[in-house]
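USER: Fancy drafting a protein?

ASSISTANT:
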Amino acid sequence: MAAPEFQLPSALQSRHPRVGLVLGSGLGGFVESLTDPLEVDYSEIEGLPVSGVPGHAGRLAMGRIGDTEIAVARGRVHVYEGWSAREAASTIRLFHQLGVETVILTNAAGVVNPSFEPGRWMLISDHMNLARQSPLTGEARFIDQSEVYSSALRERLRADWAALDPSPGLLMEGVYAWVNGPEYETPAEIRMLHKIGADAVGMSTVPESIQARALGMRVAALSCLTNYGAGLSGDPLSHEEVMEAGRSAARNLFRLLEKSLPGMAEE
């Protein structure tokens, strides 16, 4: 039997989460919703890469929402930092090693579809891997991607959002395009992305989604639409803007996750 990829601190070895949550830029505060919390730095988990990007705390939390054990990754590593797509998906393999069956991914994304607005959330229905990198490179495995993002999970999230929020228009649904970064897109690139069918663009999530599906895990993902893509407004783009928008929109997401996550573990 092969040795596990990640060596866990002894405190984590007795925890058995069924749902894993990856929190994107500015969203780490969700861990305050957990009961019976336990948190460690990524550096304490042998084999797990550590990000240096502001807003990505680099900590793994365990705790409960109701009676459901949750693993929460506060931050992720990115290909633009110099990591491979496989390394960018390390947290998903850690979740799988812990016994997680359902993964919820979150990120900050720029608006590509001009009918969408910053400050809203987009439930990802599909993605475009425009970075053309994969965490499965070298494994020679051919993974079906007909439905990367579970329709059942999306239906649950839409229904729970509607039950919580009288303004359902605050939750959009659309296609996420993954690009390498770290530079933001040009106006010409934003126009191209819209023409080929993207609604939002970002620099993460897709390697994790591919890895999770390859491991047989169910996946849902949400983008916090933090800013208009270049050329859709007259404002310059900055990481600080992304962080602030994430913090401002976080409350709606946290309420949704508190309602939805326990049911996802029961299905």
Notes: Residues 239-266 form the longest helix (28 residues). The mean pLDDT is 89. The CA atoms of residues 80 and 181 lie 6 Å apart.
